[in-house]
Write a structure and sequence with these properties.
The chain has helices spanning 14-25, 43-52, 62-70, 83-100, 121-130, 150-153, 171-179, 197-209, 215-221, 240-249, 279-291; strands at 5-9, 29-36, 56-60, 105-107, 137-138, 225-229, 232-236, 255-259, 267-271, 304-306. By secondary structure, it is of the alpha/beta class. The longest helix has 18 residues, at 83-100. The structure holds iron/sulfur cluster (SF4). The site of iron/sulfur cluster has 9 residues, from α4.
């Protein structure tokens, strides 16, 4: 009999690790796919895949994902997380790989009732339908609470050995982690910046003043202290490492400010308006640069470089 092959959407979180392990036990040949975006990276997935010896394909969908974040058809969760649209986008991409590389079906680590927005029954069905995977999307951790899928009906996967986990409690998952000797796994909060309320505030503000923002603007949101003057941003680095990244992200039309005669932060001014950056803004940025240097805060002899 030919070997049945499945793709697993693999974030490296405990649920996705367990979903993979359950199918590995049924001798399904698995390949993980994980996504890179401006809002999360792939480090956790790489580490976890190594732990369970899962081959992993990394897909950079940053640009398409940003488009989805700007305009999600199914709205946001508590912060700026468009989880339903995000899942659909990932699964549509996975489906293309499934067809191209001749996989039989796709699995995810979804747990019914775990996340209010994207893991209720209606949302799981909607995601399956909109990613055109009806019948071919298996969620091993909650499969017994969901309709049998084609892999189960065809006997590729034994439904009896799948699970019926429901809700937010992690007890069953932690017990399974012990059973499978999974020692390292991240907390369920995960690494998606879009669920972070502070980051969401910055992102909302940016989308309001500059809806056409790109990856570079998003990367800046992760760094420094932010001050907004009409449609101009002043960003003050918080440490040397951030200063370096801010410098790398600076564009030709941005202004960079530093103190020449005292140690202190690097400050970037980026205007989302046409025209020159005003003297007042430069003065404000200089004041902030001085304020955030403990050595220079009360000095009167500061010299600035403005580039
Ligand atoms: S938490 Fe972030 S990565 Fe996960 S589905 Fe939601 S938007 Fe996508």
């Amino acid at each position: 009999m030919r070997k049945i092959k499945a793709l697993v959407l693999f974030s490296g979180g405990l649920d996705s690790i367990l979903a993979a392990k359950i199918l590995m036990e049924q001798e399904i040949k698995l390949k993980g796919i994980t996504f890179k975006s401006y809002f999360f990276n792939v480090e956790q997935a790489k580490k976890a895949a190594k732990q369970i010896k899962l081959p992993l394909k990394i897909i950079d969908f940053s640009k398409e994902h940003l488009k989805t974040v700007k305009n999600p058809r199914h709205g946001y969760g508590k912060a700026m997380n468009p989880c339903i649209d995000c899942h659909i986008l990932m699964l549509k991409t996975a489906k293309m790989i499934m067809k191209k590389e001749k996989f039989d079906f796709i699995i995810t680590g979804d747990v019914l009732g775990e996340r209010p927005m994207s893991q209720n029954k209606q949302a799981l069905e909607l995601i399956e339908k909109e990613s055109s995977l009806t019948g071919y999307l298996l969620r091993p951790l909650s499969a017994k609470l969901l309709k049998p899928t084609i892999p189960e009906k065809l006997g590729w996967v034994n439904r009896e050995k799948l699970l019926d986990i429901f809700g937010r409690s992690r007890k069953k998952q932690i017990a399974l982690a012990k059973k499978y000797k999974i020692k390292e796994y991240p907390t369920p909060a995960g690494g998606c910046l879009l669920t972070d309320l502070e980051f969401a505030k910055r992102l909302r503000e940016l989308l309001k003043i500059y809806p056409k923002c790109t990856g570079n603007d998003i990367e800046l949101l992760r760094l420094g202290r932010h001050f907004l003057e009409n449609r101009t941003k002043i960003i003050v680095g918080r440490n040397e490492q951030e200063d370096k990244i801010i410098k790398r992200l600076a564009k030709r039309q941005d202004v960079l400010i530093e103190m020449k005669n005292y140690p202190g932060p690097l400050t970037l001014i980026r205007s989302y308006e046409r025209g020159k950056i005003s003297k007042n803004i430069i003065k404000k940025a200089q004041k902030l640069t001085q304020y955030y240097s403990t050595k220079a805060r009360h000095k009167k002899d500061i010299e600035f470089s403005v580039e």
